[in-house]
Predict the structure.
Amino acid sequence: MKKLAAIAILALGVGVVYAQEEQSELKVSINPASKQHSLYYLGESEQSVKIKIYNPAGKLIHSEKFAAVGFKKTYSFTTMSKGIYTAKVTAGNKTMTQSINHGVALRDLAVDVEEMGSSKYKLAVRGITGDPVAVKVEDSAGKVVYEKVIYTDTDFDQVFDLSKVRSKNVTFTVQSNNKSVTKSI
């Protein structure tokens, strides 16, 4: 049971747990020094699992099938060229994909919040790398008034109507790819 709990913690990753958006059960961790990438998955029951890894050109470079409730699989990329690889995992009837960044320099996460008047704010997020983006808005007392994970491959803008928030000061926190930016207004 302790082992399953540890896998569950690894599968959820670092950060906040979001109740409003379904989380992917597939996570990737990277050890840049050894050029190894690990896939983590935790299901609800034992089921057939298929793992396929594609190179940046979309060519299948690895495939395997087994039965499991959860797993941690580590793959060596020492002979692979730099690029964004894709892991596709099918567990039961659910298919998940996750990007694997192998040696590609990532853009910095940039966040800007613009007050538009009438308690409306425009959030601009730049530097998206294809990883999920967690957005959280808190009032001055630290109460979460908005929380969502956004799945996008591109930079985005979003307008928030915070007219129902009693606090005049709000804090926007954006997290993606193990980076976090906080802006207070």
